Amino acid sequence: MHGATGLESALWRAVAAYRGLALCYAAVMIAMNSGGYARPAGGWAVLGVMTAWTAYAYRAYGSPRRRGPALPAADLAVAAGCVLATAWVETEANIAAGRPTLPVSWVAAAVLSWAVVHGRRGGVAAALVLGAADVLVHVIAGTAGDMGSTTFDGVVLLLLVGLVVGHVVRLARESEARLARAVELEAATRERERLARRIHDSVLQVLAMVQRRGGELGGEAAELGRLAGEQEAALRSLIGSRPRVPEAGASSGAAAAGGAEVDLRSLLTGHASPSVTVSTPATEVPLPAHAAREVEAAVAAALDNVRRHCGPGARAWVLLEDGPAGVTVSVRDDGPGIPAGRLEEAAAAGRLGVAQSIRGRVADLGGDVVIVTGEGEGTEIEMTVPRPGTPPRGASGG
């Protein structure tokens, strides 16, 4: 069931208003036709039931806690019962002449309720039940052969009401959800901009000063300045990235379980620094949260290898490419390259940085890793990860 949003409240108020007005019309029709009923007291009894149910439905549908499956079912049962009571109250001649059922248009309120709760399919299902009850009145009265266009027109009208109202309600709910996401995104953006201003006025300025002074002093201070510069670049990239709001329907439980999608760009750009250039597409690159974190961890392991084995002056480039079948992340450096057989020797010696931190992670995601290197030519590690539903590829190395 949907929550008690402003849209929900407005929909139920509209249904309640229609139900009340339709009851007044039914009361007028019963008062006008009661003299010609086979059982006039029965007509007033049906009106009493309709009045009591209208009052109860107004209170019940007004409380979100009562809008369980039983309430619309009872609503439909009462409406169908009032229709069937026509066969007992009316005369056979009046039914054959096409006189409307006792509740007339009041029964459409049940169709509206089902359309609001269950959408188009629910509205159409309720209309079919009431249409069948209308036809059954003629069967019980023995006038099935005298059914005119009035009966079928009423059934068709109920079907259109259920279909159209159910469709409009679905569109309205989707619009409300999109508006809520837009408001959430705007609030997140404003908060990010506020934090960015405060960070810029304090932390970023301090890091920039440490980088500048460390370069002037040299020695160990220069290394400290270099690290401060890397952190400054990473922090600037983080506060400058656009926040991503989960799609409607993505629950917090799904997010916690790694089922929600995140933008891989925002994870990779956090590794940008004066010595690391990160290039990503202009549009979002969504991946399931678990897969995105594993790819980011593999990239972090590759960059850590560059820092440890290529020297402090080495540069690295990270390139993210998005395709219909999956994503490809390349990490390239200008270091001395990996001598032939070095990776196998490292794995045999128990150093599994490339074998597990990179190849292992990507293989677990159904992807593969290709390493292109040569002495004095740098190294490029290309990681390809398929999207969910895409046939996995076996891991390979180059």
Automatic annotation (TrEMBL):
UniProt xrefs under Pfam families: DUF5931, HATPase_c
Domain of life of the native organism: Bacteria
DUF5931 domain sequence ranges: 6-180
Keywords assigned by UniProt, alphabetized: Kinase, Membrane, Transferase, Transmembrane, Transmembrane helix, Two-component regulatory system
Histidine kinase/HSP90-like ATPase domain sequence ranges: 294-387
A biological process from GO: phosphorelay signal transduction system
Gene3D superfamilies associated with the record: Histidine kinase-like ATPase, C-terminal domain
InterPro entries, sorted: DUF5931, HATPase_C_sf, HATPase_dom, Sensor_HK_TwoCompSys
Molecular function as annotated in GO: kinase activity
Membrane spanning stretches: 12-31, 37-58, 70-89, 101-117, 124-142, 154-172
PANTHER family (UniProt xref): NITRATE/NITRITE SENSOR PROTEIN NARX-RELATED (PTHR24421), OXYGEN SENSOR HISTIDINE KINASE NREB (PTHR24421:SF61)
Name of this chain's protein: Signal transduction histidine kinase
Species name: Actinomadura hallensis
